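Hello again,

I reread your note about wanting to compare the complex against the isolated chains. To keep things tidy I'm splitting this into two emails, and this first one only covers the full assembly. Below are the input lines as submitted, including protein chains and any nucleic acid or small-molecule components. They are followed by the predicted structure of everything together. The single-chain runs will come separately.
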Amino acid sequence: MRTIIFEEQTLAFGDDQSVLEALENKGFLVPSRWRQGNCHSCVLHCNEFEYSHPTNLSAPDNSVYGLDDKQKSMGLFLSCQCKGSEILADSTLNMQLAKLDVNSANVIEKKSLSDRIFSIKFVCNTKWQAGQFVNIHTPFGERSYSIASIVDEGVIELHISKKLNGKVSNYLFNNATVGSKFTISNANGDCFYHPFISKKPLLLIGTGSGLAPLVGILKQAIKSKHEEDIHLYIAQGEPQLHYYQKQLNRLDKKQNNLTIHYVCRRNSDNIELENNMRVGELEDIIKNDFENLQPFAAFICGSPQMVRNMQIQCIMNRMDRSNIRVDPFEDNSYEP
Ligand code: FES
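Full-complex prediction:
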């Protein structure tokens, strides 16, 4: 049997359970978010996974995905991704909440991008790549948001979707003002422009505020003088939920190799559609546009269901798995 020791209590850890589930079943509160292995909210420290620890058990590969080498050697891992079946039988694992580095971030701008989405710009002395995410700490907990700005801009820009009962997003909307200070995590995630895709046509696919990381990746691709075609597909639940169109259309005019495709799932009020917007499911529209995705690299961000479907569709249409990067998160601008 595998055993976890957490806050001086000992608990059994079943084969099909994740560490996060095992701890929650025992009543421990561990921060978590989408449990997809990409937000890093649930990072724990395990003595036995430390590089220098005598037992030196390894953390399963997918439970350290996206962590840097230093974090891995320190014994950090994602508790939502670490399953009992992947740990040696008869092991005892001593775990604690991880002490992660945090950074002070000063708000220099907050503005509304649509009825539901606003942007915040921070100055912060940390490293990031456009498309990665940071966790913002508030009195109501922490949430991760993706970065829409490139390093050359000198600020971290986030697009935040106001959720009806979202305590963190509403707190930020009501309380973040120019000059206010927050603590944010180091930037994490691998959904950013990598030099190895510089010779590939790009598909940037997103829903809701999944546009934020895609804007960052797009700006970085342009800055890196990406020569192959870039197709940005952005979908919202209804046409009026689209935002940032002026900025995107300006880029579209300037960049010969860029095509922007606007999609809405429904058009309930039958409003007149602009910018060649199409109505339908994003996955079907892309399937009709491209039969063979083999030459492409893709970034897929937003609704977890869409991200899963598109990932499968890309692979079925011959795109190499290693050329797909994803950032799933729920967003009420797209889901019904
Ligand atoms: S909850 Fe585990 S990575 Fe997000």
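For quick reference: The chain has three domains: 2-97, 102-185, 195-328.

B.
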